[in-house]
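Predict structure. Chain length: 182.
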Amino acid sequence: MTEKDDDIILLNLIREGDRLAFRHLFETYFTPLCRFMHLYVRETTIVEELALDIFTYLWENRQTLQIQLSLKAYLFQAARNKCLNTLRQKKLTVRLEDTDLDFAETNVMSLETDELYQLIQEAVLALPDKCKEVFQLSRTENLTNQEIATKLNISVKTVEGQITKALKRIKDFLGDSYSFLW
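Prediction complete.
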């Protein structure tokens, strides 16, 4: 059964008023949504309120809600929209650096972001040597796949394969706790 199939079953149960299904959805996505929204809005209290608003809206409109993609995609899109609307209402601006997932350049890191950065660094260090070299040239030195291929005297397809392999291994290393990044 795929994630999409699970989403369809879960959504149908929620539409029927199944509180356990809704609770499962809430427990699965509340924390990842808050982490994601914290990249936009740096105030934990506001982030938690916004996340609760999303789930409240979902429950109150469960019978008429039309979700085109997956529940996960819907929730994260709703979270992004809530954050941007909140920032607009407060007439705040978000610097690109604050929403970028390049945590190494962020000046003020929360403890959780610092932990995530350390985990990513560990995952990169655990990569096989060639894979790590290609990945670092891509992400750290911002070289194109063609530039990496030329520099290492390998094909562009090999570069693409190594980057895909690196991303998969990093994702596996991080586990489900940080699945909101993917």
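Summary: The longest helix spans residues 19-38.
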